[in-house]
Amino acid sequence: MSTNGNSTTGSSAKGKKVPRRLRPQNNPRLATVFLAVAAVGLYLGFTKDVPFTGGYQVKAVFTSANSIRPSSPVRIAGVNVGKVLDVERYGKTSSALVTMEIDDNGLPIHKDAQLKIRPRIFLEGNFFVDLQPGTPAAPEVSDGGVIPVTQTSTPVQLDQVLTSLQYASRQDLQNLLVGLGTGLNSKPTAAENAQQDPEVRNTTGGEALNKSLKWTPQAFKGTAIVNQGFLGEKPGDLSKLIAGLATSMTELGHNEATLASFVTNFSKTMSGLGSNPTALRQSAALLGPTISNTYNALGSLDKALPSVSAFSLDLIPSVRETPATVAVGTPWAEQTAALLAPANLGAVMKLLGPITADTATTVGQQIAFLPQATDMAQCFYYKFLPTGDTTITDEGATYDFSTGQAAYKDFWFALVGLAGESQNYDGNGQFIRAQAGGAQQTQNSSTDGNLKVAMNEYSDSGNPQLQTPLFGNMPNKPLGTSPKYFGRANAPDYKPANKCVTSPTNQPLNLNDANASKGLPDQNGSPG
């Protein structure tokens, strides 16, 4: 209210305070506060993030983004644990770099984590990132770290399936499945059986695969060793190999004609290998020993390299002396050049004529000698030496003459026995020892030519009764002869023109045949 033109707003005429509800309101200030609160609420409602605070971020490289966009969810086992913040091109490649923010309930993320882009519905659309955080044994990915493309994958799009499975491709796929079923369920023919290993004959492909499972642990072990070798000797070798292969593939892609020719030739090579499975199987069987021998050869080469290096170092002083050697040899070369000059060449040729003739004669004789030397070497290698390694055994159960040693050792044993047989008792000379009389064994011959050894028979007067000539008395009964003596009339013919070895095969002579059997003692003494 107003009185006499004086304002009484906010107080009465007597100076009393007006209640707050009756005072005029400041509308602009209230509107500002309301808009600020509404803005904060809307921001939190749509972004679901507290301003000026950043969560744990991780990046991953995908071959294709597959309609992944910012705010797409990131899930672990179907539970949302984060969202996609940004999708951008990865360097100068056609791959995509996806930046994700992971909540605390999705941590930690390990370096062996796997990420896949998957659709939330079957018929495309609404993609999300399926995250497998990795194993606890692996190190954790730092904030902002990048997971490589080798640990990510993208889904196959329906249009890619329909584009790939054209009529010809579908027909080939059908033929492949039919052929696979036939190969796994059909029995092999007789001709096919002849080319198979005995273990898998008369079995279907499926049965043969089941039998091959027993070799799987050993094969996996070998594969693991090979894969370990592919990692290289030090960190970074495998990445360098992949980088080199990428460069090679890039260059091949720039020249399509060369690449097409390579594929064609490679196909022909594989067809040629597949056309002869028996030879391929034999080659594969020989590949293992070849690799083993190559490895041993390389190991020997590696062991020889220090010696070669030492030899090279020792050769350095000789190389340093080369200029001096050349300087000394230069006058000799000058004299030789003067000697061989056209003016003196005729006299030199006259001097060399007799030498050349003798050399030609020597060469001719060597040509005739070398085949004989070859025959002799083959005889020693394929006959004489292997025969010396065999053991001579007597026929019968007594084995009186067997030593159980190789024949060449028996030869040296015989020489030692002969040397000891003629020694005197102090070893300083030789003499013949003889034993006279007193023995009960007599050696005599019978009328039928067979050797007979019998005890002396004494008459009533005490004198021995001998019906055949006496050759000697022996303290022990003779054991016989080995090998059997057939007499000079039955000796084999000596044929010096026959070769000892007709073909280079390692077949020793049989020292235990009928000609080497044990015989009776010789009743005729030494042959005359």
Structure overview:
The chain crosses the membrane at residues 30-46. Residues 55-134 form the Mce/MlaD domain. Residues 1-23, 454-528 are annotated as: Disordered. The chain is an alpha+beta fold. The chain has helices at residues 27-47, 158-164, 167-185, 190-194, 205-212, 216-230, 237-254, 256-274, 277-320, 322-339, 342-388, 407-421; strands spanning 2-3, 6-7, 56-62, 73-76, 79-89, 96-102, 114-119, 127-132, 146-147, 152-153, 441-445, 451-455, 472-474. Among the domains are: 56-157; 184-221, no CATH class. The protein contains 12 helices and 13 strands. The chain has an 8-stranded mixed β-sheet with strand order 9-3-6-5-4-8-7-10, with no helix packed on it. The chain has a 3-stranded antiparallel β-sheet with strand order 12-11-13, with no helix packed on it. The longest helix has 47 residues, at 342-388. The relative contact order is 0.04. Mean pLDDT is 76; it is low at 1-13 and 445-459.
Descriptive terms for the model:
528 residues; alpha+beta; 8-stranded mixed sheet; 3-stranded antiparallel sheet; 12 helices; 13 strands; elongated; disordered N terminus
